[in-house]
Amino acid sequence: MTTSGTTGPDALSDLADDHHQVRELVTQLETAVGDGDNVGATALAKEITDGLNANAAIEEEVFYPAVLQSAPELAPEVERALEQHQRAKQLLFEVVACGTDETGATAPDLELLHEAIGHHVSEEELFPSVRGALSHDELMHLAARVEARKEALEVASDAGRRRRERDDFDVGTPRPSRTSPPVGPPVVGLRRS
User: Fold this and answer.
1) DSSP character for 186?
2) pLDDT per position in the chain (193 positions), as tens?
3) CB under 8 Å to 67, separation ≥6 — which residues?
4) CA 5 to chain centre
5) Inter-CA distances, 126 with 9, 40, 51, 106, Å
6) Domain 11-166 class in CATH
7) What are phi and psi of 8, to 5 degrees?
8) Which end of the chain is more exposed for a tag (fewer CB within 10 A), N or C?
9) Which long-range contacts (CB under 8 A, 24 or more apart) does 23-28 make?
């Protein structure tokens, strides 16, 4: 969605799209768990975790501070949204942790997660107030900042994924760490006779 006279989405539209994508992933996770697709459920849980963490970082680091600066009267709604972030993160952690044991995630766990994300997404009710408090130019500038933060998080996520893939490929190959002693026989110095 774009506002009139713009060439791209404003910050609110961009965040609403992110919320929609996470909601869709949770629905897919529910289906995967219901079908007994543990591999698919694990991949979706990882994708949801990444999406939720990225969305929370963007909103907490960029969006909410800008809203509070321009519209301090919205502080109670921003505080409620931050609480919803924490609740959704905690529930996602619990669902992912359940998925790593033999019992797996249950329908009630997933319903709670869906509800928590739904409550957070309902923060979009705050968006009309934000749209009224911030000028068109502020929303477009905020969209650029949101996009820049999103790109930085994607770059970091891609680097982490490549590192994990490399480490998975090298499984079994010992790697010295800064805290572990060197691997292999001790190096013997040359002696002069």
Assistant:
1) P
2) 333 344 467 888 888 888 888 888 888 888 888 888 878 888 888 888 888 888 889 999 999 999 999 999 999 989 988 888 888 778 777 766 665 444 555 656 667 777 767 666 666 678 888 999 999 999 999 999 999 999 999 888 777 767 766 666 555 555 544 444 444 444 444 444 4
3) 74, 78, 130, 133, 134
4) 31
5) 17, 34, 21, 32
6) mainly alpha
7) -155, 180
8) C
9) 23/114, 23/117, 23/118, 23/121, 25/51, 26/110, 26/113, 26/114, 26/117, 27/114
CA distance 8 to 89: 30
Rounded to an integer, what is the distance from CA 73 to the centroid of its chain?
Answer: 27
Instruction: Tell me how many degrees the CA angle 50-51-57 measures, rounded to the nearest 5.
Output: 90
Closest CA to 95 of 104, 87, 82: 104
CB-CB neighbours of 118 under 10 Å: 14
Degrees, nearest 5: CA angle 118-134-80: 30
d(CA 10, CA 144): 8
Which helix (H) or strand (E) segment is 117 a member of? helix 107-121
**Per-domain residue ranges of the chain:** 11-166
Question: For residue 40, which amino acid is it?
Answer: G
Give the position of tokens 């529910």: 30
The whole-angstrom separation of Cα 60 and Cα 58 is 6
